[in-house]
Amino acid sequence: MKRARHQARSAGVLAALAIGCLPFAQAEEIASVNTNFRFTGSDRVSVEAYDDPLVTGVTCYVSRARTGGVKGTLGIAEDPTEASIACRQVAPIKIVEPLKQKADVFSDRMSFIFKTLHVVRIVDAKRNTLVYLTYSDRIATGSAKNSVTAVPVPAGTAIPVK
């Protein structure tokens, strides 16, 4: 009985950890190009679209390197930390709810456990602009590789901030 409770508790902790690793929004792969041929699956650069969940009308396009081969196919390869971002207004901008001054909008793992790609939304209230920053971190060492883009919000549409 005690052992069964311990196993159930352990399973619950693992499930919570797994849910915490899920991205906030699903990426939609737009296209990819092969960069390094391998018989077991080529390395590639993929372009993914992310729609900002709290700002309708803004889509972020992130390009990043993906490792191929057997490890890449199994999802256990460590992808390189390089990424680039371009966010654009693709429809009329509508802000669903007040935004935090700085918030992690998207995240996606770049290795089995240790590396994560982040997209952070920063509100520049003075210029009425949404700034998006992408960077990757590593649990042990971090990373300085980053990219930034900005989307001006049309005049007359104030950005509500929490």
Can you tell me about this structure?
It contains two helices and eight strands; from the N terminus they run αβββαβββββ. It has 162 residues and is of the alpha+beta class. A hairpin with a 4-residue loop joins β6 (115-124) and β7 (129-138). The protein has helices at residues 2-20, 69-74, and strands at 28-36, 43-51, 55-66, 83-95, 102-109, 115-124, 129-138, 146-152. A four-stranded antiparallel β-sheet has the order 1-2-3-4, with no helix packed on it. The protein has a four-stranded antiparallel β-sheet with strand order 5-6-7-8, with no helix packed on it. Residues 1-23 have low confidence and may be disordered. It is elongated, with a radius of gyration of 19 Å. Helix content is 15%, strand content 48%. The chain has one domain (24-152). The longest helix has 19 residues, at 2-20. Keywords: Signal. Residues 1-27 form the signal peptide. InterPro entries: Uncharacterised_CreA. This is CreA protein. It holds the Pfam family CreA.
The counted number of beta strands is 8
Overall shape: elongated
* pLDDT < 50 stretches: 1-23
Rg, please? 19 Å
Which band does the percent of strand residues land in? over 45%
**Structural class category:** alpha+beta
The overall average pLDDT, rounded, is 75
Main beta-sheet strand count, sense and barrel state? 4 strands, antiparallel
Order of helices and strands: HEEEHEEEEE
